[in-house]
């Protein structure tokens, strides 16, 4: 068909054509912004102002809880955590990369396909996270995607993880378990994170999405970057405390060391059962007791470990103590961060 001369198009048709063209341009810009991580803004929900615990979280690893919960079970646990800390947002430390190998040379095995090779890292042909993250998107939960890097490059792992899941508004950022970074010759402590590496991690995360943060986890504050603070959440996973008072003192010192930066407390280990096992509601009572030591206005998150999660949540639903119920640690294959060893 011969093209219609422009001067013969009616004014109404010409206006409609212009509007359609503008709409296409707008859609193209929006799609480009989405791909660059610029259209999602902040997470779906934010904690209520003044809440002593901002994010009420759960640790999730394939070796820490057997059988591994279905998505609906994780959902119910997150709801219970929110109930334990009114005003908080349910959250997860979702482990997507496990350390493998001996102490001399360790690699990181990721639970999703790797698009580009990373030395000493391997992927998995089937994605293990999409369905879970879709649930978190719908519920408005907040998710940290954590790796145990071994001797692999943590900056490359950070980019690979966040680039793959940048489309999920529930993803808050990238987590690094420092205990499992460069462990050779460290007697199980891992290699301390310097300011330079901390800056590179935050830069890598925010090159994917400007709202992303990085969490660094260890039980010893000296394994954290000496002065770098921007974009970092400092997670304490110490265990094996002598008493509630000593535990409160240690976590309060951690909070003061890194204030005003956000902090998180990973708790619920079997090594501390003598402290929390006698509490009527261990999740709420222990979490709030530790949050009291935070600096004024400092953001605090509480993360209950998966090793004891199922019996503790069952008791919480029933309105009683966890007591002597069989723990997930005793039924699970021992792995990193298993809660069976006392932290140093």
Q: What is the highest CATH level, the class?
A: Alpha Beta
Q: Within the largest sheet, what's the order of strands?
A: 1-2-5-6-7-8-9-10
Indicate how many domains the architecture comprises: 1
Number of strands: 10
Helical coverage, percent range: 25-40%
Q: What general form does the structure show?
A: globular
Q: Tags for this entry?
A:
344 residues; alpha/beta; TIM Barrel; 8-stranded parallel barrel; 10 helices; 34% helix; disordered N terminus
Q: Topology, please?
A:
Blueprint: H1 11-35, E1 55-60, H2 71-84, E2 89-102, E3 105-110, E4 121-122, H3 130-139, E5 142-147, H4 154-165, E6 171-177, H5 195-208, E7 213-218, E8 232-236, H6 244-258, E9 263-267, H7 273-276, H8 282-291, E10 300-304, H9 309-318, H10 328-331
Helix pairs in contact: 4-5, 6-8
Descriptive report:
By secondary structure, the chain is α/β, with parallel strands linked by helices. It has ten helices and ten strands. The protein has a single domain (48-331), classed as Alpha-Beta Barrel (TIM Barrel), CATH 3.20.20. It has an eight-stranded parallel beta barrel, surrounded by six helices. Strand 6, helix 5 and strand 7 form a beta-alpha-beta unit. Helix 4 (154-165) packs parallel to helix 5 and helix 6 packs across helix 8 (282-291). It is globular, with a radius of gyration of 23 Å.
Structure in a nutshell:
The protein has one domain: TIM Barrel (Alpha-Beta Barrel).
């Amino acid at each position: 068909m011969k093209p219609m001369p422009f001067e013969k198009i009616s004014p109404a048709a010409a206006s409609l054509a212009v509007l359609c063209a503008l709409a296409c341009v707008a859609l193209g810009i929006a799609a480009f912004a989405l791909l660059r991580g610029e259209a999602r803004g902040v997470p779906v929900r934010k904690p209520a102002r003044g809440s002593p615990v901002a994010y009420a979280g759960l640790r999730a690893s394939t070796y820490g809880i057997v059988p591994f919960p279905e998505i609906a079970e994780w959902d119910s646990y997150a709801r219970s955590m929110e109930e334990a800390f009114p005003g908080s947002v349910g959250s997860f430390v979702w482990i997507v990369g496990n350390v493998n190998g001996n102490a001399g040379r360790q690699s990181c095995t990721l639970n999703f396909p790797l698009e580009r090779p990373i030395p000493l890292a391997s992927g998995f042909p089937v994605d293990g996270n999409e369905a879970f993250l879709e649930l978190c998107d719908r519920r408005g939960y907040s998710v940290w995607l954590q790796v145990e890097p071994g001797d692999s490059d943590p900056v490359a792992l950070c980019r690979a993880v966040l680039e793959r899941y940048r489309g999920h508004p529930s993803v808050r950022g990238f987590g690094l378990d420092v205990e499992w970074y460069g462990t050779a010759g460290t007697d199980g402590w891992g290699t301390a994170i310097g300011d330079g590496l901390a800056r590179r991690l935050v830069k890598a995360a925010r090159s994917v999405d400007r709202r992303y943060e990085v969490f660094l986890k260890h039980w010893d504050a000296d394994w954290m970057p000496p002065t770098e603070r921007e974009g970092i959440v400092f997670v304490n996973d110490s265990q094996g405390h002598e008493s509630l008072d000593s535990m409160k003192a240690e976590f309060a010192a951690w909070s003061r060391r890194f204030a005003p930066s956000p902090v998180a407390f990973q708790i619920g280990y079997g090594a501390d059962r003598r402290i929390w096992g006698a509490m009527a509601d261990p999740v709420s009572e222990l979490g709030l007791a530790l949050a009291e030591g935070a600096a004024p206005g400092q953001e605090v998150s509480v993360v209950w470990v998966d090793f004891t999660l199922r019996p503790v949540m069952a008791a919480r639903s029933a309105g009683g103590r966890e007591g002597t119920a069989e723990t997930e640690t005793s039924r699970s294959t021992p792995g990193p961060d298993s809660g069976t060893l006392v932290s140093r």
